[in-house]
Fold:
Amino acid sequence: MASALIFVCRKTRHFCKKHRCWLKSIGYRGISSNSDESFPDWRRIYQERKKQIQDIPSHESEKYNKSGVFVNNEICLADIRVYGFDYDYTIAQYTDELHYVLYDLGKESLITNNKYPEEIKAQRFNPQYILRGLHYDIRKGLLMKIDSYHHIQLGTVYRGTTQLSDTEVLELYQGTHVPIEDMNTFYGSGPMHQLVDMFAPPEMNLITNITDYFIENNIPYDPEYVFYDVRNAVQGVHTSGLLHSTIMNDLGKFLEKESKTKQFLEKLVKAGKKMFIITNSGFPFIDAGMRYMVGPDWQDLFEIIVVNARKPKFFNESTRPFRMYDPLNVKTWERVRTLEKGKVYVQGNFNDFRHMTGWHGSKVLYFGDHVYTDLADPSLKHSWRTGAIIPELEDEIEKMLSEEYKVSVRWLIILQRLLEEIQASRNGSQQETGSHEMIGELLEERDEIRSQLKELCNPRFGSMFRTHHNPSYFSRRMARFADIYTSKLTNLLQFSENYTFYPRRSFLPHERYPFYDPSNSPIDLS
Structure:
């Protein structure tokens, strides 16, 4: 016989009335104001449900593939004629060593160029501390996670590495909501700066460590100065070419190499697809990396190669024409009127790109790691299909697949349903006091489980993709700008060039799950 909390028959593996048992199996058949069952024994129901939660078998939907491709919007690969790629953290995947080097180079720049105290040399990068997609309040000097509705997640607000209490946060922000004008959206200028690219973790770590140093040594500081000093130092490591030269001097240390990269690109060519690269990196840098990963003839795979593209300006400005790249740095002034295979182009703009290639709209699928620089304009303005590359995804899925995580999520859902049922049964009766006490206990337990789930992903900030119950701000923007997302490009090798990715139907709060008996008001644990 099926367990009380199993909604798919354990004998037939699908829903059937013969073996349906839901709440009836634990002695609860719904709330009715005209029967004695208006006053159920909630503590008994609580204990029975908790006892039986361990008996729920793993559902097929829980057997996620860490190398899966996940879908926000339906996309048929048979309709895609042209594939485009960013380079850094898209075609090229870097080892964790890169973050340590970027952190140290940024730290050295602060000491040398901004005269920061020599003592900060002792600071070290901590990969466990930071989560990509966080927001930094430039004016208040606080790092935090914000959800899809612009609410600060309490328990994730830090000054340096010191957590602020919920009371402090509520007083500072007059609640948890951050107004739209403060959010510093992609084209905005508010104080909430989102640290969203793959090079952001060293930058955030450096900000928090320097903040700690100033506080511990009673050095007066303005958070805004610290933010822009660190940001300029880290960005300077990029623009000066120092980071690129460091990587090129030891590709094996910093760049991941796998044969599947070449296999994936060659598969697309054999399928008759056209390919291009649009990257902000310079040609010598990507040439060295592509030779290492794919081979000396890598350019033969691509129709168009655009470097130093200045994204996002490439996608939303039309004032910078393409220029021919010359490896000997011999300047040419002739206007580029056609984009040819075998040549490399510098800068340029989308309007010229579309005019000269004829590639436009939903026939183009472009992949990148930065939800704003790579994906926002192509999807919103130019109707390209887009794919987000999110390397952290594999680690997050690994944690979600742990038994501790799955059991905690199941029990959290059941607790919330129990809270709803208790509230619905309260009608001013003598049970009012008892049910009120139990609601308080359940809320405490709910908060404990939420904290446990958060710590399983990241002790300070939780999941990159959600707060307690809402998607994170990062997750919402990624879902808006990317049709599909995955941890790395080569995951698409699992699918044919004609495969169609279908999104799951998400149920709105007012919709019922269609496969269960409405009279039993079941919980969907899928």
Summary: Residues 1-38, 516-526 have pLDDT under 50 and may be disordered. Residues 97-248 form one domain. The CA atoms of residues 109 and 233 lie 6 Å apart. The longest helix spans residues 432-457.
